[in-house]
Specification:
2 copies of one chain form a homodimer.
Chain A: E1 7-11, H1 17-26, E2 29-30, E3 34-36, E4 54-64, E5 77-83, E6 90-94, E7 97-98, E8 105-114, E9 119-127, E10 133-142, E11 149-158, E12 163-172, E13 194-196, E14 200-202, E15 205-212, E16 218-227, E17 232-238, E18 241-250, E19 255-266, H2 273-286, H3 289-307, E20 310-312, H4 315-331, H5 357-369, H6 371-383, H7 385-394, H8 425-441, H9 444-465, E21 467-469, E22 472-474, H10 492-514, H11 519-525, H12 529-541, E23 563-564, H13 583-587, E24 589-590, H14 597-603, H15 610-623, H16 632-641, H17 645-656, H18 673-687, E25 691-693, E26 696-699, E27 709-716, E28 719-726, E29 729-736, E30 740-744, E31 747-751, E32 754-757, H19 762-765
Parallel strand pairs in A: 23-24, 26-30
Antiparallel strand pairs in A: 1-8, 2-3, 3-4, 4-5, 6-7, 6-12, 8-9, 9-10, 10-11, 11-19, 12-18, 13-15, 14-15, 15-16, 16-19, 17-18, 20-27, 21-22, 25-26, 27-28, 28-29, 29-32, 30-31
């Protein structure tokens, strides 16, 4: 990592398979609509693996998911994100010698991500086997200004020779998705999902329209190549592939640039995707590339202005925050047809599926910094509400909606339901994010139009799932966030969230009633006062497991009676446990993949005494492996909350470096977007102590010992607030908007211009 | 059903698909080694389905079992029973007109199973489309005297015409298994498991040697046809098929018989299976068919002498007992390479797998009537003990053996582990059957040679699975017999059986020690006194759930806190529930597929007060659907035990008629062998009140109101005992062997010659 926080660079990297594939992910270009892995234009030798792919967010095919034993209602067809085309191919010939970093000699090389410019660059000083030397610089961009546009600017300078330079630029429609039958986290089989049409040139734009095999979708890829010098050109098409060849003569020291424009338009967004692709291409090439670079920079300037977390101290970790935030804006969908997948658009891990990651790990960032994106994520869930209702029926519920555990366009895509569909907490997570959105933005219009309907329907689901037992409302046979303990009764996280969901269903009912906004949704759903009363009664009677002897909240009814997994004696190579132990073996033990009760304590801290949360933290910390990437950030936040700053910083470190340091060893399959949001949360919710509560915004800033200072900005209603934390105290500034009440270290303050307060040891002082 | 109990016959049966396939099962021929479905020799028209198959017990191939999501240790390859060849084909031509019951006119038809002769017969009076009438009689036999031998005796008599009669007898090596992608209980896909070699005639015997695609096994099928008259013969082979054609002229009223011998020899039992098949064929045809019929009758005479249950009254149900017992001897393996599969050798349901059905439902019958077969079933489990150890390692256990939930040769073949591998009670079931075998036979040699090793290794598994919690030994995350409630903590059935298993491991340790038989197994397993003490301590501390308010044993820790499924309001077409509700929906409710705690009370009745068992029976009866075929027989036994004779008889009725009346609507896929054993148990353990206990044999005879009398014989050590029950009392006679103490209605009696006692109302009187 460079000193400059907005640059991430690797030099003279290894040409080993693992590192190559890792860099394909780390340097991918995306804009929330399309994503292109950072594959070498010229490819690798045949003996090296590559995940070569270009993806569109929300564009999918159906794929068969065979169940070893057929049981009623199991998912047998999933939606899967597709590799749509290969427009990355550019082969370079220097007087007939083909460029490859695996031949000749690489004198220098670097790969650079510039997060202010929004481009990646590969630079190679190369000596051919016959001794020709050239400098090759390749700049790539997924445009934020024109979402269907991806560009490659490929510059060659001859160093010690003159002669013929040839580019073979390809556009290939026949592509496959990556598969690895041995890894549960990527697709296990290859299938020809994309059926490409014949490639054809329209003027000098090659176009291929491909159809999915089952989902009835289509995508058009258009490619145009421009050379900076007059050249001999050849164009060829064969089946679903197009070749555009340029041959030009260079003097020694001269340079030439090939600019390759790719436009990808799908039928989800565009009625006539071929027409749309040609239209976008026309617009893209009508302006110089510099224009698009400038728009890219402007977009990011605004982004960083609002969203950056500035840190002084411990560059390695703090710069990783910037990297992570950059990936979030690259990954998040910008229309209601898409969301943000577990791996963004950087790879095929989890097949492009959206999980609860969105609501619990990523949405908080966007809610605080770009509320319109948070709103869009809610709209996406509303679009898929009918599918969630259908899913609830499959699961045997007579009423309510159950959101799928993983999906692209709303259909449940989890194959193993005990750690998939059984994670009913997804309903509570979505409701929670809507409530947070409302608390921060007070956007009652969105609640009336779609938010409340989701909250009502998820509340109904809880009513249909749970039952009263000895006067307590119990929720049986569900799985909490911790996937090492499946199908349990009264998971604390699930129950406390269901309680919140039920309570807020009643709240929204009354608020909308008072504002005369209730009638449409009340009629649509056939809501009655009586049903609302049932919600309230169940919320009140909700059973929240509590163990008096330990003063903790047990993760579920049975957790504490199981044997404690001996983590100390578990060999290092046995982690993550899920790859080395049968699920039953894990389920039978006190061992957690990730924060579960600890997460519940973070999001709903007022449900328990601080003391209970502290005891719980200490208890669960001992049995948690953090095999999930969603875990350390939450432990960091809660360590901050509970007055354990060193621990908080250590967990923050784990979280922030996860992808850049490939600590989970699977970043080749894509970045971990939830963890990236979690890194932000570890700073803002953790060190900053931010909470969104009914009475307003809460802050409780602390400063890690490793840092000199940090600052961030958040939206609160119509206000924009900056929080700066230094050793000598914190400064909270109203940058924009009206004055408002905020809470710092639990005390109310009226924020007019600026507040300066000394730092307190919040978690300890309470 | 005919008056004669040993005849089952249907006349003028429908040629509808359902009935045809049902009869393929009900009239199948088997001998425990091979089984042949009762397909029409001439086949059905193309629009009708048939499960046409010939199977060998324990002969299998590996089949891929894809998991929708890959998790560590899940089964991805199963063993599956194969259809090995088609030697049933005989086409008949009357002056060129081909016989088919679907053409011309069937004037009379019947299918008959003669359970004394051990043969089936199809008789048809047929008029061809052109008016030729013939009587066709086909007798089939799977020989008990020569297990690889199956015969078809095909007789034709011309009635109103003379002319040319032609038989085309085929032998086909290229066969597939049946599949139905929609039914979880049979294979979902077709795969060419059998790779047949080229057919060839050796003299007039056609032989095909086929190899399995993956398991490395081979099978030879040999066929020989003999005509009762000189004929023009033709033989042809093409690829893996052989045809033997006979053409003969008959006068009106004359008859001709084709005898077709099939021999199937596999490489599991025979080194050179081709040589073995030819050798067996040579022996088979060297004696007239009548000789084999006579041996068949003799074998069955002996079988019925020992095993029959004679009943007077309610012929419909009581004759079904005979049918069921006949199927057991047809189904059970007679060598240690095989066991008894859930469908015997009558069909492909459950793919020929062996389950706990063997130990808990079928072995009791053989133990009492043919102890050498019970012994053989234990030997089979011993043969697969190394595989059970391996399975325990896969499941994360450091010691002990975990038997597979379903298997052919020892490998776990369940695809969905929550209702498969998680049924750890299989270990207890096997231990229980070994203990029962010992208690009845006192065969300590078998215990020393293999029984104790199994009991020790299963005891170790419990130690490694369970843990102490608050001083109680708990067993978490397992599934009990009831598959509508999976992955639970402290399933009563599992725990009480584990307790018994642990207790008896210690017992066997001491008994073998006293008899100087311990040393080999002690050394082999590295057993220590200390470990035995741990067994005893855990057995003593075993947690057995008990609810004082209801005075019942809850099925598991959480069962009673779940909502009660409303069975009254569940539409009839929703049964069995597993085909209409998502597993989670079932798991979340108080609803049982089958006897679970009630079964525990039957097998270990001394663990609870009679009162508690009665309350439990009443409680579980209300929430049990009996969607499993293993349920009603147990409810019948316990109803007898608890003094509810009418209820006992009603459940017995459900059990006894299950296959003959096709009440579960899937008998086409094969008979339900466990239920057949269960029918026997409902009589002998239920009405007869038999129990095998440490102090000896217990009886408590009752007489159902619908019956006049019944009797049965049982072995007890070296003694053979007959129990006759009549309205005026029961008579217990020592037919053979030494005098011994038995218990009748709880009171000790010395059985010398005969005991006559009045009937008591046992369950009520206690």
């Amino acid at each position: 990592m460079e000193q400059n926080k907005f640059i991430y660079e690797v030099r003279d990297f290894d040409l080993e398979n693992d590192e190559l594939m890792l860099n394909e992910t780390l340097f991918h270009n995306a804009n929330g609509y399309l994503g292109v892995r950072s594959n070498f234009e010229e490819g690798y030798p045949i003996n090296l693996q590559s995940i070569r792919g270009e993806y569109i967010n929300g564009f999918y095919d159906f794929a068969e998911m065979k169940q070893a034993e057929k049981l009623f209602g199991l998912t047998e067809e999933k939606q899967t994100m597709l590799n749509v085309a290969d427009t990355q191919g550019i082969r370079l010939f220097l007087n007939g010698e083909e460029f490859s970093m695996f031949a000749g000699e690489t004198l220098e090389s670097s790969r650079t991500l510039d997060m202010e410019k929004g481009t990646t660059r590969r630079r190679v000083m190369w000596r051919s086997p016959q001794g020709r030397e050239a400098e090759i610089t390749i700049v790539r961009m997924a445009s934020f200004a024109m979402l269907p546009l991806f560009t490659i600017e490929y510059r060659v300078r001859t160093l010690n020779f003159s002669g013929e330079i040839r580019f073979d630029s390809t556009h290939i429609g026949s592509v496959l998705n990556y598969c690895d039958p041995g890894d549960p986290r990527v697709a296990g089989e290859t299938f020809q999902h994309i059926l490409p049409g014949t490639a054809a040139f329209t003027d000098d734009v090659s176009v291929i329209v491909s159809h999915t095999s089952k989902s009835g979708l289509a995508v058009a890829s258009a490619v145009k190549n421009q050379l900076s010098k007059p050249a001999v050109e050849k164009r060829k098409v064969r089946d679903s592939a197009a070749l555009h060849q340029f041959t030009v003569s260079l003097a020694q020291g001269e340079e030439v640039t090939l600019t390759k424009y790719t436009v990808l338009c799908d039928s989800v967004r565009y009625g006539d995707c071929r027409g749309a692709a040609l239209g976008h291409m026309h617009k893209a090439v009508s302006l110089p590339l510099k224009h698009w670079y400038r728009l890219q920079e402007e977009y990011l300037k605004k982004y960083w202005e609002n969203c950056a977390v500035h840190v002084k101290g411990d560059d390695k970790l703090s710069n990783a925050i910037t990297y992570n935030l950059y990936q979030l804006i690259q990954s998040v969908g910008k229309d209601p047809h898409s969301n943000i997948s577990a791996k963004g658009l950087s790879g095929e891990g989890y097949e492009g599926h959206y999980f609860w990651d969105t609501e619990m790990y990523i949405q908080p960032f966007f809610l605080l910094t770009m509320p319109e994106i948070a709103k869009n994520l809610i709209e996406y869930r509303y679009t898929t509400l009918p599918a969630a209702r259908e899913n609830a029926r499959i699961m045997g519920h007579k009423k309510g909606a159950l959101y799928p555990w993983r999906t692209i366009m709303g259909k449940e895509c989890s194959g193993y339901f005990p750690s998939g569909s059984a994670q009913y907490h997804i309903d509570g997570d979505i409701a929670y994010s809507i409530i947070s959105y409302y608390l921060l933005t007070k956007d009652l219009a969105l609640i009336a139009r779609c938010g409340a309907e989701i909250v009502f329907e998820t509340a109904r689901l809880w009513m249909d799932t749970g039952n009263y037992s000895e006067g307590r409302f119990c929720i049986n046979s569900v799985t909490g966030p911790d996937e090492y303990t499946c199908l349990v009764n009264n998971n604390y996280y699930t129950n406390v969230l269901a309680q919140y969901n039920l309570k807020w269903a009643a709240r929204f009912y009354r608020i909308l009633g008072e504002e005369n906004l209730l009638s449409p949704v009340e009629k649509k759903l056939g809501l009655t006062e009586e049903e609302i009363n049932c919600f309230e009664r169940a919320a009140k009677a909700m059973y929240l497991p509590y163990d008096a002897a330990l003063d903790i909240n047990p993760q579920d009814d049975a957790f504490l009676s199981k044997k404690v997994w001996n983590l100390d004696d578990t060999p290092q190579e046995d982690f993550p446990l899920l790859l080395h132990y049968h699920p039953l073996c894990l389920y039978r033990s006190q061992v957690c993949k990730q924060a579960d009760t600890v997460l519940a304590h973070f999001i709903l801290e007022d449900a328990q005494a601080l003391r209970t949360m502290k005891h719980s933290f200490e208890y669960y910390e001992k049995v948690t492996t953090h095999d999930s990437s969603l875990s350390t950030c939450i432990f960091s936040i809660m360590a901050s909350r509970l007055g354990m700053p060193e621990k908080a910083y250590a967990y923050f470190g784990e979280s922030s470096k996860l992808d850049l340091f490939n600590t989970h060893k699977n970043t080749k399959d894509g970045i971990h977007t939830a963890n990236m949001g979690g890194t932000y949360m570890a700073v803002v919710y953790g060190f900053g102590g931010l909470r969104i509560k009914e009475d307003g915004l809460h802050l409780a800033p602390t400063l890690p010992g490793q840092w000199e200072e940090y600052d961030f900005k958040v939206h609160d209603g119509d206000s924009l607030i900056q929080v700066s934390v230094q050793r000598r105290g914190c400064e909270i500034t109203l940058l924009d908007g009206t004055e408002k009440e905020i809470f710092v270290y639990g005390k109310s303050h009226m924020l007019r211009d600026s507040l300066r307060l000394p730092l307190e040891e919040w978690g300890r002082s309470q």
